[in-house]
């Protein structure tokens, strides 16, 4: 024990522990044993070995509570309770639900310290973070979504709840991720079955208690505990309508595969390797301080951690020296200490994982650990400098307090290195030059970009990834899309059959060869095969090419080369769409006749399809420059811009309206700046092939629209499995929805498939599918 | 980054283990005006504010440590009176308080020997009185100077004022800079002015008051800090206490980062003095942790850090008595200064 006089000389901080007494008392109140929260009450805790698992304090290894591993029967009970409660909860109306969410927000605030201490005990994160960040954001999320419930009936009249949502959350922000999942779901009238991560269930169980106090009707929120096996029961449960998952990319991929073809909606918020770019004109000291929040926050166990440092070469040496100096001042230890920056790693298994990764890849660079870690489940803040993009640690997510770094020369190279990753969750960039910052931010492939900052979150601002960081947004209006669906009924798609070859073929006119349309040119199919297309009356209308996987490869290459279209101004894109409409209009009669020849429909209906197609082109020409982004009212001096960006290259299988099916996918996609690889109606492809000439005469740049013909069933797999396609849509009558969802797991592309059902979508629905919302945070002030 | 013509001051001060050095720093001799440094200065206001807003939540000093830190803070206070109605009697009373800032029984209970404040800070007319009153205590007298607070009296008189105060026995001179030189970007003029003030101070240490509340931007604060250090300031100080905005944490962060940068380039340690508006013990702890975090323990010494404050001491005394007795204290239980 040091005397005051000694401390006066050393000026040490000493310890400042937050008391755990109240939280431990709460656990004792529950006899340290917990069951699940199902249908409004806690179930009896399990006692049999094998059904019990332990909640431990990672900082000390002490057992905090005995928890119950859910059985299939218990998951069934939870889902049944959620199902039973759902219709009534939805029917109560947004305004009634708002009051419940408001009560939840208030109760979180009332029990704020208890939640914070319990979180720190269970997870190992510093009490400062659980107190000042996690719990504060949780309350904010419920307040915000109380407001969304209040406004739903007026502002989202066309949307309805999805039903029962299965939600699986990670251990890094246990209560915050619960809030991100539960608040929007129940605000929109869904009911939920939520599974916390097995390392960190305690705050979810405390939340169950406040659900009772807030008047959440029984069955609306159900919480089951357990490991991945329980997660799997939820994922594969037949009576769940939607799965929302936050966690690792590997598990997310498995969930994508497991839910493929089930008809469940899916949103995934997965891993990342987010770049942290420092330009030479940045405020260097602030950029270094920002790294403390980027990579050492929550021991680096943050999906959007700024874990990849990219420093402009000229300042790199100085920057690294100052960074190491700053790291040496970090304090690591007892997470309940109010004077601690870095707490415990969540579990010894995670610690081993981090240690193994660094042992394997650290030698590719120079490892700096200027702040030693205490004994136990702690890992020291680490910088590994001198790595290159090819190094394993520059590509793999470490999920620990480990920063890897490299350098760049020019802004262009910074973007290139930043985007050289399978992930696309977040990015930070530091520069005092507004021109540079606002130029670079949109070029980064990431759902969230922080300019001169890091790890800023708010309920009003969308959060979510691109590429293998997942899809879907949480927060803001865009986040509600993940918990609602358009109202209205769907009908089963009538399969369109190609007309078979008659006994005697009637040859109408000179042979016209319909090839594939790739990169603005007609191209023969790689397979060398063609197929004859007959009218219902047996006339040979022409031949179409049978595209194969290689033609998909070529079409995607062409589409990826046409990036200029995405950069073109919205006005310019609108003009092209209008021009396509104008040129189609000039040939309206010819297309109507073609439709009649192909399908045998009436003249009126055929003309209607052409007129509709022109109308669709005009509609999305109109929208091209009107899908406004937003400025989110986040609690800071600055702006959080929600920008609607093109998804990239979209692969689409068209429905069997010969012209309408094609135009429906092309128009919204290219209006938003995407490039398309469309597969025309399999039964009636010739209107699409006629359309090449319309495209040729309408100033559509090569590669923006690529059209293939052939078997949907054969093309679905290579299309959905292609790693350089960002989204696949299907309105096909062929049974390819499951294949597409399954194959999309490769690069976790977005999918939008019909499951053999058809419906009319509003323009807004098309536009939402044709865009990703990127949130760019720009704090300002001089 | 470096200034090759400058030899780095070899810090002869031993930084043995955890104990603070009790030796005077080698004085900052200044250097040639380096406009590249001034032009390269960046200060991102939002990021700086975030750092300051979260610091109190990141660093917490409790119990004995808090008491020790508060005692340390006392030794860094420039106990100040800068009022138009100052009289010799008033100044003598203040000096007596500076020599005995904490009740002896409280110090005894804390196991501490006698301590004093860092200095007493007065206007020129009160320097002689203060010097006499503090004779034998070892407490230096600081004089505000150069047409304090606005610094707009004739230049030769401002220089003369320094001379007079030094002659009267002031060991520290708190000069005010010409804000207009900063606001118009006339760095050479600022440098020349500061250079002459420093030279005129002779052996007396000079603190450069930037009047940050009147400099418009944090970037200007950073630039002015650099220029004054290049011109040989021993300390840089935020405010006169007379501006509408005085010491703030963001301004402090900018200035101490400038000090760190200057030290990295030259090897010389320049002191820091936030002044005005710091009246709570809790605030003092936050300032000390900011210094400890950004500059290190070396700066936690009256040689390199001072609080310009008049009412801070009273709050610290109450907190110390609370620490000793476990009961909240009252102002009248502590002698006034």
TrEMBL record, chain A:
List the PROSITE patterns hit by this protein, alphabetically. ALDEHYDE_DEHYDR_CYS, ALDEHYDE_DEHYDR_GLU
Per the record, the domain of life is Bacteria
Q: Which InterPro entries match?
A: Ald_DH/histidinol_DH, Ald_DH_C, Ald_DH_CS_CYS, Ald_DH_CS_GLU, Ald_DH_N, Aldehyde_DH, Aldehyde_DH_dom
Single GO molecular-function term? oxidoreductase activity, acting on the aldehyde or oxo group of donors, NAD or NADP as acceptor
Q: One Pfam match, by short name?
A: Aldedh
Active site location: 269
Query: Which Gene3D superfamilies does the record associate with it?
Result: Aldehyde Dehydrogenase, Chain A, domain 1 (3.40.605.10), Aldehyde Dehydrogenase, Chain A, domain 2 (3.40.309.10)
In this entry, which stretches build a coiled coil?
Answer: none
UniProt keyword rRNA-binding present: no
Q: Which residues form the Aldehyde dehydrogenase domain?
A: 53-487, 536-756
Q: For this UniProt record, give its keywords in alphabetical order, as a comma-separated list.
A: Oxidoreductase
Question: What family does the entry list?
Answer: Belongs to the aldehyde dehydrogenase family.
Name-wise, this protein is: Aldehyde dehydrogenase (NAD+)
Automatic annotation (TrEMBL), chain B:
Q: Which UniProt keyword terms apply here?
A: Lyase, Schiff base
Give the record's GO CC terms.
Answer: cytoplasm
Pathway annotation? Carbohydrate degradation; 2-deoxy-D-ribose 1-phosphate degradation; D-glyceraldehyde 3-phosphate and acetaldehyde from 2-deoxy-alpha-D-ribose 1-phosphate: step 2/2
Q: Name one GO molecular function term.
A: deoxyribose-phosphate aldolase activity
User: Per its UniProt record, what Pfam families does this chain match?
Assistant: DeoC
- Show the catalytic activity: 2-deoxy-D-ribose 5-phosphate = D-glyceraldehyde 3-phosphate + acetaldehyde
What is this enzyme's EC?
4.1.2.4
Entry similarity comment: Belongs to the DeoC/FbaB aldolase family. DeoC type 2 subfamily.
* Name of the protein: Deoxyribose-phosphate aldolase
Organism this protein belongs to:
Celeribacter baekdonensis
């Amino acid at each position: 024990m040091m005397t005051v006089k000694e401390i006066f000389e050393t000026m040490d901080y000493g310890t400042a522990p937050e008391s755990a007494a109240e939280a431990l008392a709460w656990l004792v109140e529950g006899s340290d044993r917990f069951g699940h929260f199902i249908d409004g009450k806690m179930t009896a805790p399990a006692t049999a070995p094998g059904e019990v698992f332990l909640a431990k304090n990672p900082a000390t290894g002490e057992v905090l509570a005995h928890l119950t591993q859910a059985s299939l029967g218990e998951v069934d009970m939870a889902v049944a309770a959620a199902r039973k409660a759902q219709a009534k909860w939805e029917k109560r109306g947004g305004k009634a639900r708002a009051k419940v969410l408001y009560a939840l927000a208030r109760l979180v605030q009332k029990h704020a310290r208890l939640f914070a201490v319990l979180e720190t005990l269970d997870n190992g994160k510093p009490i400062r973070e659980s107190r000042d960040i996690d719990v504060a954001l949780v309350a904010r999320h419920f307040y915000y979504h109380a407001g969304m419930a209040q406004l739903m009936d007026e502002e989202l009249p066309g949307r309805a709840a999805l039903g029962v949502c299965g939600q699986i959350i990670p251990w890094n922000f246990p209560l915050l991720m619960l809030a991100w999942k539960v608040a929007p779901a129940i605000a929109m009238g869904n009911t939920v079955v939520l599974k916390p991560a097995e390392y960190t269930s305690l705050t979810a169980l405390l939340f169950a208690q406040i659900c009772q106090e807030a008047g959440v009707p029984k069955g609306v929120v159900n919480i089951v505990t357990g490991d991945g096996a329980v997660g799997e029961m939820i994922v594969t449960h037949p009576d769940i309508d939607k799965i929302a998952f936050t966690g690792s990319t590997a598990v997310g991929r498995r969930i994508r595969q497991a839910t493929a073809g089930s008809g469940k909606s899916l949103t995934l918020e997965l891993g990342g390797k987010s770049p942290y770019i420092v330009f030479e004109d940045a405020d260097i000291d602030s950029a270094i301080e920002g790294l403390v929040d980027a990579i050492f926050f929550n021991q680096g166990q943050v999906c959007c951690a700024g874990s990849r440092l990219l420093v402009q070469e000229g300042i790199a040496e100085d920057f690294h020296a100052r960074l190491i100096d700053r790291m040496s001042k970090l304090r690591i230890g007892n997470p309940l200490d109010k004077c601690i920056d870095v707490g415990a790693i969540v579990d010894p298994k995670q610690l081993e994982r981090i240690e193994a990764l660094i042992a394997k890849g650290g030698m590719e660079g120079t490892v700096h650990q200027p702040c030693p870690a205490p004994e136990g489940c702690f890992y020291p803040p680490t910088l590994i400098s001198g790595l290159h993009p090819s190094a394993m640690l520059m590509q793999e997510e470490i999920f620990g307090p480990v920063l890897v770094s490299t350098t760049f020369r020019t802004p262009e190279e910074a973007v290139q290195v930043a985007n050289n990753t399978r992930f696309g969750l977040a990015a930070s960039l530091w520069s005092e030059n507004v021109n540079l910052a606002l130029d670079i931010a949109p070029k980064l492939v990431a759902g969230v970009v922080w300019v001169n900052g890091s790890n800023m979150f708010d309920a009003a601002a969308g959060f979510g990834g691109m590429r293998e960081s997942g899809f879907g947004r949480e927060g803001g209006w865009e986040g509600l899309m993940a918990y609602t669906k358009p109202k209205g009924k769907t009908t089963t798609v009538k399969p369109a059959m190609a007309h078979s070859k008659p006994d005697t073929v009637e040859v109408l006119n000179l042979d016209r060869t319909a090839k594939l349309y790739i990169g603005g040119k007609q191209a023969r199919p790689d397979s060398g095969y063609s197929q004859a297309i007959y009218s219902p009356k047996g006339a040979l209308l022409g031949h179409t090419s049978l595209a194969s996987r290689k033609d998909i490869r070529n079409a995607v290459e062409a589409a990826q080369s046409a990036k200029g279209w995405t950069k073109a101004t919205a006005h310019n894109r609108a003009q092209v769409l209008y021009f396509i409409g104008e040129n189609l209009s000039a040939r309206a009669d010819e297309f109507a006749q073609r439709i009649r020849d192909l399908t045998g429909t009436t003249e009126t209906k055929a003309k209607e399809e052409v007129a509709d197609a022109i109308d669709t082109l005009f509609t999305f020409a109109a929208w091209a420059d009107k899908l406004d982004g937003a400025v989110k009212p986040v609690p800071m001096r600055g702006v959080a811009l929600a920008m609607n960006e093109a998804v990239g290259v979209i692969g689409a299988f068209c429905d069997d309206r010969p012209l309408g099916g094609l135009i429906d996918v092309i128009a919204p996609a290219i209006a938003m700046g995407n490039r398309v690889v469309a597969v025309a109606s399999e039964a009636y492809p010739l209107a699409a092939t006629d359309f090449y000439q319309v495209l040729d005469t309408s100033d559509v740049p090569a590669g923006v629209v690529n059209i293939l013909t052939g078997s949907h069933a054969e093309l679905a797999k290579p299309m959905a499995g292609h790693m350089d396609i960002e989204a696949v849509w299907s309105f096909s009558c062929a049974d390819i929805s499951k294949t597409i969802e399954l194959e999309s797991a490769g690069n976790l592309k977005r999918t939008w498939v019909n499951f053999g059902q058809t419906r009319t979508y509003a323009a807004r629905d098309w536009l939402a599918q044709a865009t990703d919302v990127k949130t760019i945070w720009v704090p300002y002030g001089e | 980054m470096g200034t090759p013509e400058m030899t780095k001051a070899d810090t002869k001060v031993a930084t043995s283990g955890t104990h603070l050095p009790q030796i005077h720093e080698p004085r900052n001799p200044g250097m040639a005006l380096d406009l590249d440094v001034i032009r390269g200065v960046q200060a991102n206001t939002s990021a700086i504010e975030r750092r300051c807003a979260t610091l109190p939540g990141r660093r917490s000093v409790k119990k004995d440590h808090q008491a020790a830190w508060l005692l340390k803070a006392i030794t860094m206070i420039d106990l100040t009176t800068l009022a138009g109605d100052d009289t010799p009697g008033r100044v003598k009373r203040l000096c007596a308080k500076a020599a005995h800032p904490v009740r002896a029984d409280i110090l005894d209970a804390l196991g501490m020997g006698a301590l004093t404040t860092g200095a007493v800070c007065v206007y020129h007319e009160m320097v002689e009185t203060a010097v006499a009153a503090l004779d034998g205590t070892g407490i230096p007298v600081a004089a505000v100077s150069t047409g304090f607070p606005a610094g707009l009296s004739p230049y030769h008189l401002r220089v003369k004022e320094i001379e007079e105060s030094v002659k009267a026995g002031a060991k520290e001179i708190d000069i005010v800079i010409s804000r207009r030189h900063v606001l118009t970007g006339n760095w050479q003029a600022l440098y020349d002015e500061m250079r002459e003030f420093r030279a005129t101070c002779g052996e007396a240490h000079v603190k450069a008051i930037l009047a940050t509340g009147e400099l418009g931007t944090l970037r200007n604060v950073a630039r002015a800090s650099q220029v004054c250090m290049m011109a040989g300031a021993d300390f840089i100080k935020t405010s006169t206490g007379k501006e509408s905005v005085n010491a703030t944490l963001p301004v402090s962060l900018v200035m101490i980062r400038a000090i760190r940068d200057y030290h990295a380039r030259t090897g010389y340690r320049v002191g820091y003095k936030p002044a005005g508006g710091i009246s709570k013990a809790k605030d003092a702890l936050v300032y000390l942790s900011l210094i400890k975090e950004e500059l290190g323990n070396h700066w936690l010494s009256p040689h390199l850090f001072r609080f310009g404050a008049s009412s801070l001491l009273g709050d610290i005394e109450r907190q110390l008595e609370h620490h000793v007795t476990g009961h909240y204290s009252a102002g009248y239980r502590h002698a006034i200064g």
